[in-house]
Amino acid sequence: MGELDRDALRAIRDRMVRLLDQGCVWLVLDLTDVSHVDYRGVPWLVSQAEEYRRRGGDVKLAGVSRYLLAILRAAGAHDAFEIYPDAGDAREALSQGHTAWLH
Fold first, then answer.
1. 61 Rama class: left (phi>0) / alpha (psi -120 to 50) / beta
2. pTM listed for this prediction
């Protein structure tokens, strides 16, 4: 996947909205193959995660490198998500309900 610039983050946010509209309230974002995230787009992901929670679900992050964690911290979003070493662990944490997996 490489780098997630603002356009890529906007596309992910839009996909998250569509999944939510389809009734999927449990989501894992697998960032294993992501090398960089534009911190200016992180608030969009946080707002979508908050909407998932308002609807009784949640969004978990998986495969977050130390570098990406530093970006989340810089954007003030490191506490907005539970972070797991890999997608399997994150899916297990969301074992209740239907889980979508974006990678």
1. beta
2. 0.86
Q: What is the DSSP letter of 57?
A: -
| CATH fold label, 2-102 | Transcription Regulator spoIIAA (3.30.750)
pLDDT at 46: 94
Token pair recorded at residue 38: 């534009």
Please tell me the distance from the alpha carbon of residue 90 to that of residue 102, in angstroms, as a whole number.
12
What does DSSP say about strands 82-84 and 58-62: parallel, antiparallel, or unpaired?
A: parallel
Question: Is there a contact between 18 and 49 (Cβ–Cβ < 8 Å)?
Answer: no
Residue with tokens 């989340």: 72
Side chain identity, residue 46: V
Helices (runs of H) and strands (runs of E) counted in the chain:
4, 6
For 10-46, the pLDDT digits (tens) are: 899 999 999 999 999 999 999 999 999 998 989 999 9
Q: Where are the domains of the chain?
A: 2-102
Question: What is the phi/psi pair of residue 13, to 5°?
Answer: -60, -45
